[in-house]
């Protein structure tokens, strides 16, 4: 399928690069539960340094990274302030209620961000018999909002409101390095606002599996305990961590190519369905738009050799990545132009 179709369903469909495969085959390994896998240790250290945190823990998925943050930072029966369309709210199968015993206080995030006043309202509401908030979650980049990166100044304002109310802050940075590439703001600067930051190595960076959660030493020590409770402790995980090291070293600088190609797709969508998307607002690698009949559109695209997906009723998503080149983008643009 990957060779026959232009696959725009997700940036998780990428295949490991030849350099990653070699690194995986040659990786030095040990038992990570005992802290003895040198490749995992190197990956965790490299990521922690990259985002300016003391330590990091390697986990199988971004969902697990987010769930560990909730379990460590948000006591049961408290609320988590988060955008209504964030991954941790919508796309984790209700995991927060089951794994952490928390509820979400959701706020409008149409442009991928929300305001400090929305956080202050949730804090003040606790004085009026509303559940007490303990944590703020932000998603950077924000997938449903065309992969929108947070403006650093706005993030700082949200952080200040959270700190004033005694709340912790977690950043779901599944595509954090896309935000860095699009804005020029270093990942470390973004992460400095957060107690914990999660990043996926398999979204846009071509690693076959794995995510990282970084924070202070005590928070990550607690997260390791919770990782074990969720069944996420791994053994000779250096075999896959090796690909993550290559991803951090070689795949971030090329991300602007994906962003440029996503803008081209957004232009094709806007030309076919005027008003469906604003191309100038597509800053990273994701294009989302409303369709009156997504099933018909996806069937048409597939018939033209292009795969796409949906993220909500009536909402189609296109995602660019390493395995789609300019020729593939033009093929997709042509298919969009001929869509019914």
Task: Compute the number of strand runs.
Answer: 12
Order of helices and strands: EHHEHEHHEHEHEHHEEHHHEHEEEH
The main sheet comes to: 7 strands, mixed
Tell me, rounded to a whole number, the average pLDDT: 97
Shape: globular
Share of residues in strands: 15-25%
Radius of gyration: 20 Å
Low-confidence stretches: none
Structure commentary:
The protein is 43% helix and 16% strand. The chain has 340 residues and is an alpha/beta fold. The strands form 3 sheets. Strands 2-8-7-6-5-3-4 form a 7-stranded mixed sheet, sandwiched between helices. The chain has a 3-stranded antiparallel sheet with strand order 9-12-11, with helices on one face. It is globular. The two termini are 24 Å apart.
Q: Which key features would you list for this structure?
A:
three-stranded antiparallel beta sheet, 340 residues, alpha/beta, seven-stranded mixed beta sheet
Structure in a nutshell:
The chain is α/β, with parallel strands linked by helices and 340 residues long. 43% of the residues lie in helices and 16% in strands.
Explain the layout of strands and helices.
Blueprint: E1 6-7, H1 18-26, H2 38-50, E2 55-59, H3 62-73, E3 79-83, H4 87-90, H5 95-99, E4 103-107, H6 116-125, E5 133-139, H7 152-164, E6 168-172, H8 176-183, H9 187-191, E7 196-200, E8 211-215, H10 217-229, H11 238-250, H12 255-272, E9 286-290, H13 294-303, E10 306-307, E11 309-312, E12 315-319, H14 326-337
Parallel strand pairs: 1-10, 3-4, 3-5, 5-6, 6-7
Antiparallel strand pairs: 2-8, 7-8, 9-12, 11-12
Helix pairs in contact: 1-11, 2-11, 3-10, 6-7, 12-14
């Amino acid at each position: 399928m990957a060779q026959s179709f232009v696959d725009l369903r997700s940036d998780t469909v990428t295949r490991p690069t030849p350099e990653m495969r070699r690194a995986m085959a040659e990786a030095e390994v040990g038992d990570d539960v005992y802290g003895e896998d040198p490749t995992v240790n190197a990956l965790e250290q490299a990521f922690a340094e990259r985002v300016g945190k003391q330590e990091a823990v390697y986990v199988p998925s971004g969902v697990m990274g987010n769930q560990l943050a909730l379990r460590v930072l948000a006591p049961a029966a408290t609320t988590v302030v988060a955008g209504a369309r964030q991954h941790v709210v919508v796309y984790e199968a209700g995991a927060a209620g089951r794994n952490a015993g928390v509820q979400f206080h959701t706020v409008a995030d149409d442009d991928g961000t929300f305001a400090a006043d929305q956080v202050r309202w949730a804090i003040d509401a606790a004085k009026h018999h509303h559940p007490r908030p303990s944590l703020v979650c932000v998603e950077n980049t924000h997938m449903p909002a065309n992969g929108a990166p947070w403006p650093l100044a706005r993030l700082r304002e949200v952080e200040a409101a959270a700190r004033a109310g005694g709340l912790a802050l977690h950043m779901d940075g599944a595509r954090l390095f896309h935000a860095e590439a699009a804005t020029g703001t270093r990942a470390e600067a973004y992460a400095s606002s957060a107690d914990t930051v999660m990043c996926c190595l398999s979204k846009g960076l071509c690693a076959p599996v794995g995510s990282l959660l970084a924070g202070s030493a005590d928070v990550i020590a607690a997260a390791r305990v919770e990782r074990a409770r969720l069944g996420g402790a791994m053994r000779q995980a250096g075999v896959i961590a090796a690909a993550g090291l290559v991803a951090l070293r070689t795949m971030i600088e090329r991300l602007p190519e994906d962003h440029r190609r996503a803008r081209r797709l957004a232009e094709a969508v806007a030309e076919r369905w005027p008003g469906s998307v604003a191309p100038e607002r597509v800053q990273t690698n994701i294009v989302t738009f409303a369709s009156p009949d997504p099933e018909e559109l996806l069937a048409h695209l597939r018939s033209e050799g292009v795969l796409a997906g949906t993220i909500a009723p009536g909402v189609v998503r296109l995602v660019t990545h390493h395995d789609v080149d300019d020729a593939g983008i033009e093929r997709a643009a042509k298919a969009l132009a001929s869509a019914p």
